[in-house]
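User: I'm putting together a small comparison set for a docking exercise, and I want a reference complex before I start. The sequence is below, and the ligand is nicotinamide-adenine-dinucleotide. Could you produce the 3D structure with the ligand included, as structure tokens?
Assistant: Of course. I'll restate your input first, then give the structure tokens for the complex.
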Amino acid sequence: MDFTTQMQVPRIVFAEGALARLPDELARLGPGNALLIATPRRNLVVEQVRDALGSRFSGVFPHAAMHVPAETVRAAVNEARRIRADCLVAIGGGSPLGLAKAVAREMDVPIVAIPTTYAGSEMTSIFGITESARKTTGRDPRVLPKVVIYDPLLSVDLPVTTSVSSGFNAMAHAVEGMYAADASPLTSLLAAGAVRALKKGLLQVSSDPHNLAGRADCLYGAALAGIVLGSVSMGLHHQLCHVLGGTYNLLHAELHAVLLPHVLSYNAPAAPAAAESIAGALDCRDAALELHTLAGQLEIPRNLQALGVPPEALHDVAVQVAARPYMNPRLPTENEVLDLLQRAYIGNAPG
Ligand code: NAD
């Protein structure tokens, strides 16, 4: 065995009812004035976190939005400075956490993350900010949360459609992590665990959103997949999602379910060991086909047409993606990307 790997993982508190441990975690960390960051309309869950914070609650900024708009970051920084926040508590999905990360870069304050979707951003030092429709992303160790609290009770109200598409976002982190050029036996082990937990959890949650074991499996799978995302380079799938999602302002999570089976089908011949491991974790013979079938079972859209992508967009996306530098088991030509996108546009089974 010969490998080099580096993982930076926050302190993790994972339990049904783990929110009750928030005061102890903050006491361990030291800060006294927490700014709570959330998306609009998450009143119930925000109230629960506010209660758990007790005297450490100093204010709430409930305006987090997708893709972290720069003007929202400026408003949140102003609010954090006004209330003299020395800690940020992000509750919800990748949007509030993305905002907390952007604020933490300006103010150098610790983040406590309480994720209720499966995006996995809480496990990475990756940040992104959108200024004048241009998203800039990067890595900064200061934005990695100091503590992550996973409490399945807080995600039971996440709608099934958001749950399953967000779960496919996590699945994509694990799948791309399996064939990453900088993967290691450790990241592959985490990725396989993520794929297994996500398949099991998503099937349970889609039929019974209040199933706490299913919610726990999904959060656990998302956590493992998030560590993989933070530790290795993502490939073709993430390039496609970035270009398509950014250009057509598509829902980040839904794109994953549509594209992932087709990208895996394209990459599998060049990464047979990874494809075999993914199939093993999914308990099937053909991993790409199984992911397409799973998306159908979970009733997620399986074609780009259903997401509102105009057919004339495919060529432009293929040109952009083929020109980008990134790591992938195979580097596709413009025509190969176009072929893959056309299959995903119609949504037939991959292969
Ligand atoms: P999100 O945070 O916008 O959440 C999706 C929806 O779920 C929102 O409408 C939100 O209000 C709702 N929601 C969240 N928790 C809920 C709950 N408990 N009950 C009911 N509804 C709830 O989106 P997301 O899919 O979690 O994250 C996507 C974003 O995260 C994208 O902008 C993506 O670029 C980013 N991301 C970043 C990283 C990273 O490492 N930096 C990793 C993955 C994703």
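The mean pLDDT is 95. The longest strand covers residues 87-92.
User: Thanks, that's exactly what I needed.
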